[in-house]
Design a protein that fits this description.
Largest sheet: 8 strands, antiparallel
Order of helices and strands: HEEEHEEEEEEEEEEHEEHEHEHHHEEE
Helix content: 10-25%
Structural class: alpha+beta
Number of helices: 8
Distance between the termini: 63 Å
Number of strands: 20
Low-confidence stretches: 1-24, 330-340
Shape: globular
Radius of gyration: 22 Å
């Protein structure tokens, strides 16, 4: 006759078979922060130091941005927040005026859902929406939207100190893994390359993104992986519009960062960042500038940015909102107070 151990094992196997397949992985996300409408700019501070990426840019304070009509609250933009750049001044001495905003709050894991109607585009631009930790690269960086010049699609990248890498086995059909070592000083990669995944679709970035009315990027950061999804305006899931996001229903992500990396150790206390810089270490790299159509417009990126102000009329962010969710249950709460969730 079978032993008690064998009987118990068979019983547990049978019980596991009967459980719904999502029983062990079901996650409820609770809204903790809603940066939209009149609350958007108050949730961020303006970065006014020199650009760490050596861009030809002058990052403005809120006060100076308002004076120059380069930031605007929601009333003039259909309940969206506008972040523009100077597109009238010829040959600005200290760099073309722009903005870099950093969230006042830091985060450890979560689901970050950004609804963006328009993003900066054009030769010389380097726009990014990202998460950044202190003492870079010790506490990590997650680039959610990033590209330069007239890039045809979005690049998503992790930057860390040594010891974090991703695996090609998590490649998804909608993107290409360019590099797998997230270390900013990886000896086998270009400096600061990180582990980069490039989307295949043109509507994920720049002119293609703007042509479809933008869309939603959702980034799920957990202890085991970092995943990024994108939907154009017409394809945003109903659960996101309703403020009840469920990543289990979204299918394969655009990027799936997972492998030999302790996510808890390499990504800590990250802040949300929106910025638009010009030229710098990527867009202004001679090899990058000269490799596409932008190189035909001027001998260098900086010469183009200095001498062609009207080229930057479309170099602006129009953000409908950013919502941050944390794993939890028992209703939608923020600091113990019920938070209303309006549909986007």
């Amino acid at each position: 006759m079978p032993s008690l151990l064998t009987t118990s094992t068979l019983f547990l196997q049978a019980l596991t078979t009967l459980l719904p397949p999502t029983f062990a992985v079901a996650t409820t996300y609770v809204l903790t922060d809603n940066y939209s409408g009149d609350t958007f700019f108050g949730a961020f501070t303006a970065f006014t130091d020199p650009d760490p990426t050596s861009g030809f840019v002058n990052f403005l304070s809120y006060e100076n941005g308002i004076k120059q009509d380069l930031i605007a609250a929601t009333a003039n933009y259909d309940n969206s927040s506008y972040l523009g750049v100077d597109h009238t001044t010829p040959s600005p001495a200290s760099g073309r005026a722009s903005h870099r905003l950093t969230s006042k709050k830091s985060f450890n894991e979560g689901l970050f859902v950004a609804d963006i109607a328009h993003m900066p585009v054009g030769c010389g631009t380097w726009p990014a929406f990202w998460l950044l930790g202190p003492e870079w690269p010790k506490n990590g960086e997650i680039d959610i939207i990033e590209g330069v010049n007239n890039a045809g699609s979005n690049q998503m990248t992790l930057h860390t100190s040594a010891g974090c890498s991703i695996s090609n086995q998590y490649a998804t059909p909608n993107s290409i893994i360019n590099t797998t070592d997230c270390d900013t000083n990886a000896p086998s990669q270009k400096k600061n390359a990180g582990c980069a995944v490039v989307a295949k679709a043109s509507n994920t970035f720049g002119a293609g993104f703007n042509a479809v009315g933008g869309g939603v990027y959702a980034t799920e950061w957990t202890s085991s992986a970092i995943k990024i999804w994108f939907w154009p305006r017409a394809g945003i899931p109903a659960d996101i519009n309703a403020g009840k996001p469920d990543p289990n229903k979204w299918g394969q992500p655009l990027a799936h960062f997972c492998g030999e990396c302790d996510m808890k150790a390499y990504f800590q206390n990250l802040q949300i960042v929106f910025d638009t810089t010009f030229c710098g270490q990527w867009a202004g790299d001679p090899g990058v500038w000269g490799s596409g159509e932008c190189g035909a417009k001027a001998p260098t990126c900086e010469a183009f940015v200095k001498g062609t102000p009207k080229a930057f009329g479309d170099a602006y962010w129009l953000v409908n909102g950013v919502r941050v969710y944390q794993q939890g249950g028992g209703g939608v709460r923020k600091r113990g107070v019920q938070v209303g969730v309006e549909e986007w």
